[in-house]
Amino acid sequence: MKNIQNSKRTKQPVLPRSYEVGGNRLRLMRAAKERLSALLTTLEGAEHSLKLFFYMFEDDRVGKRVLKRLIAACERGVAVEIMVDSFGSNGTPRKFFDPLIEAGGKFKFFSPRFSSSYFVRNHQKMVIADDCRALIGGFNIADEYFNLQPKESDTGLQDDSWEDLGMEIEGPEVSNLANYYRMLSNMVYRNNGNMRSLRKMVRQWDAGDGQFRWLLGGPSNRMSRWAAAIKKDLEEGRRLDMVTAYFSPGQGLLRRIGGLSKRGGQSRIILPGKTDNPATIGASRLLYGYLLKRKAQIFEYQPRRLHTKLVIVDDAVYIGSANFDLRSLFINVEMMLRIEDADFAEHARSVIDVLHKNTETITRELHKSRASFLHRIGWTLSYFLVNTLDYRVTRRLNIGSAK
Predict the structure, then answer these.
(1) Chosen CATH of 19-191 out of 3.90.226.10, 1.20.120.350, 3.30.870.10, 3.40.50.970
(2) Is residue 168 within 8 Å of 133, Cβ to Cβ?
(3) Which pLDDT tens digit goes with each residue over 340-372?
(4) Which CATH class is domain 211-394?
């Protein structure tokens, strides 16, 4: 029987709507309606510039609403630029964006086919308005990320919307993200698809060393700043709280998570219990035994598909586009914002607390009952595939998540 944490309805705590950190206003947004409202309001309120990058931008209800507002922004004199990943958005025809270009906006696919960097995906999601307001997080421009998908679905899930998280940031720190976007745009327009240029961009980006650090991940001949930062925090930290859609790190980071309990620390890891991509669950379950032996607390989220990306180590909060798998840590282009602030870290943990109430606890006994010989073979294959192939490929493979 599933041990769901909230067998009784409990009143959810009232969370502050925003936090002030280092002269910047931060607002975490879990509810789909709140994220959609913030997205549309940001587009409508821009006065000078809009810069967007998304892994997925679908030709659906949300996609059409966003495109309409981008065109309207062009018509009122706002400089609009949007880039989307060519693989993540390969279901959206090029002509969908023609009205934006005709209105004066700039549009470009990242890393077109038959380029040297085609299998390196740009998984980022961001909206920057007037270089002083931004939205970041895990959500793409597609109906299912805002609970607007058709009721009939071929996923087989009762609720096939995504549980996700976004953050609105307003203040001087956004200018650093805007500077990065300009660097990315310059690379795409001059050397799109060139692996050497992409590696150079990842290597040369300066994340800073202050309270806010914009950590870029991607292909490089050395560890990216995003991977290096989380590695260092895990080596020194005492408390880990993590929610991630895909969890299949390498042995180095896995050992560092396991080492928390050896130092008298604790770790809470919330992972998907439902998905449209069974291989990702299988890849995670391959690692449960190692972590459970080291007293990590593992939970699987039950109500719907989990897409949230939030990691907290002591007073450091990581939020952005990256999952906790090898592709996100070392291959795909990702941006994670690291915010070091004790009060904001506690606020972010309260979001994880809400998710925790709707999870199934993974005990060593439950994991052992699932870990048959055939299941372990499937989990091992899943681990290899999800760390090698793009999500939109592995989601077609029906392996890995058998109960």
Answers:
(1) 3.30.870.10
(2) yes
(3) 999 999 999 999 999 999 999 999 999 999 999
(4) alpha beta
